[in-house]
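Amino Acid Chain and Its Fold in Token Form
===========================================
What this section holds: a protein sequence and its matching fold, both as plain text.
Structure line: whole-number tokens from a learned vocabulary of local backbone shapes, matched to residues.
Purpose: to set a sequence beside its fold so the mapping can be learned.
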Amino acid sequence: MGNGPAPFSDIGKRTRDLLNKDYNFDHKFTLLMQSPGGMGVTATGWKKDQIFFGDVNTLYKSGNTTVDLKLDTHSNVSTKVTAHDILPCTKVACSFKIPDHKSGKLDVQYLHPHAAIDSSIGLNPTPLLELSAAIGSKDLSLGGEVGLNTASASFTKYNAGIGFNKPDFSVAVLLMDKGETLKASYIHSVNPPYGGTTVAAELTHKFNTYENSFTIGSAHVVDPYTMVKTRLSNNGKFAMLCQREWRPKSLITVSGEYDPKANNGATKLGLALALKP
């Protein structure tokens, strides 16, 4: 991407990742095996509410082409073929699911020093069309996205946003939910890239209900192998996780969340183990 703007979907992503990424309140196990020839296999299993789910994902890379194949416990097969640089600065991806014959989709991404454009069209007689674009630079980007349901000739979404990024902080403002929601986020890192602490906040205002909400969080690097994250919402929910890299690229993550408004008042606990032999 160089010095060009990030795609519209990346506006505010640094804050969203700190507040949500790696939090897991179920039991999850991931095994990643990769060969030098470009073949990678990932097996994932998780238990939620006494029910076990799982999938096996195979990723194969050859030149500028990547083939991603996933099989889950419900016998659904998802396939995605991605080709890079068919045209300069362009990535094309075709995906579909079996047995859902209406799930086919074609995605095209174009990255330019001053623009990032993503488009998506469903491969069926009445496709869903989506288009997003961002203009600017690596530091400042302004963009929007629209979605059109051709069956009903109606918009499924239209959002807009602006983001400002620096290595140690990022600010984003998004107008979402067809103009009904305003979301502002901020993230700031202290003493990067040597560890230290990162803090983030996300504020949301809904114009139709005049409701305001917020979430604040932090991430603290205890040592090169250990990270602790916290999250607090205005509704009183408090969450915390501790992630430890106990061997190269193998992680164990323990998460917990307390909701004072829950009926039983119990704390939700989760354990995630990611193993790369």
In short: The chain has a mean pLDDT of 92. The radius of gyration is 21 Å. The chain is about 5% helix and 65% strand. The longest strand covers residues 154-166.
